[in-house]
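=== Discrete structure encoding ===
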Amino acid sequence: MEFKDFKLDESGLLPVIVQNYKTKKVLMLGYMNEQAYNDTLETGKVNFYSRSRKTQWLKGESSKNYLNVVSIASDCDNDTLLINANPDGPTCHTGSESCFFNDIVKADKDESAEILFTIQDTINERKEGIKNLEKMPTKYEGSYTQYLLIEGIDKICKKIGEESAETIVAAKNNNKEEIIGEASDLIYHLLVLLNDRDVNIEDIFAKLNSRHK
């Protein structure tokens, strides 16, 4: 779609919403002129037009926290873009993941799939931390996740077996809270297993999407 096909605002700019393609969290709102739009399509990295500085800019040019384009969609009126991007780091200049962190009305609880990616990132961090240990401990007293990764696949598989059995028992008992707790334990240990075998949640989502289609 060419830039001339969009309905622009009074300044000749196109509003752009960027969200994390994994978690769907909204990261920022910016504006594009024609050059920024074309450069975004050409480079695969989100470019904007700064209304205050009156100049085009590449997001992440100084911080290296680029927004790598995964998909671009226009709304029903063709006057706003939605970009799904893979961020290389925090999006906000404050160091926050998202520019939208000043809560006015806060949800009682977060029920989004974002927590799966948060846990996956934490497990990755724990794995990196193992490399910094001076020696493998005989009795590890630190992170439970690091303990599992150090012990290896046999220990992880054993825990998955235990958690699976406990989830089955909870289901047979028809206790909803017990099922939620045991299923959560099972999912956590499954994420550790995936990490140990170099499989990402994105790989699972891709397979589920292909089967669903």
